[in-house]
Design goal:
The structure is a homodimer of 109-residue chains. By secondary structure, chain A is mainly alpha-helical. Chain A has a domain of 75 residues: Arc Repressor Mutant, subunit A. Chain A is built from five helices and two strands, in the order ααααββα. Chain A is globular and about 45 Å long. At the A-B interface, helix 1, helix 2, helix 3 and helix 5 of A face helix 1, helix 2, helix 3 and helix 5 of B. Chain B binds a DNA duplex (30 and 30 nucleotides) through helix 4.
Amino acid sequence: MTDRPVRGSRTGRPIMALLDLLGRRWTLRILWELRDGPLTSRALRAACDEASPTVLQARLDDLREAELVEHSAGEGYGLTELGREFRTAFMPLYAFADRWADGKPTTPS
Amino acid sequence: MTDRPVRGSRTGRPIMALLDLLGRRWTLRILWELRDGPLTSRALRAACDEASPTVLQARLDDLREAELVEHSAGEGYGLTELGREFRTAFMPLYAFADRWADGKPTTPS
DNA sequence: GTTCATGCTATCGAAAATGTAGCAAAGGCG
DNA sequence: CGCCTTTGCTACATTTTCGATAGCATGAAC
């Protein structure tokens, strides 16, 4: 019953912080759109389906504080080295997405 | 400038659907808490820091529709085979979380 | 100086999440 | 059978967040 109470869900754990960060709208999308290189704020907004600058800016702040994204005057927003590590770690999920869509024809239109 | 318009966005690619699903609050957390085996709705709620049942139920519906989570009368909520594939694909990010926290001592308390 | 792109903020209505309470169904048990 | 507990889920009001549009300051180009 309460034999398995909370497991590793204490709030201090890195995975919890990461889950929290990624579980906000546009966070994953931003990281994904920056995978090929830096984008200006406007270009990023275009890539993110014209998401409102309010949230985008908030998420960029989050991601900058998380040191996954950085801003350089010349190029705009891009992944930090940590961000590029994230990208690498994310790739299996990218591959999974295809298997997922494949084995889940519950996606009519 | 518009030389790099949207890249791989739109087109309803699987990755976009996955990014959308995971970018909702508690989605990733739920999948994470179910990693070791099924939990009843109440136990899951406890594991998820007593999140409100409203959202949890909504996310469980999302995840069931996505065929990542299933419900069995006897055991509660658990990962489907697809869900277990997800878990595998997610592991690199779990490993990354530690490196991230390590190289980012910007997490005092 | 004018034009333009960039990075960012302001506002406000809409949507989503939170917190608490509660219910119907299923099972155990006297 | 009544009584109690657990489970899965819903209702509601409040708070938080998001979305859409407009707009501004800065800096570079022309």
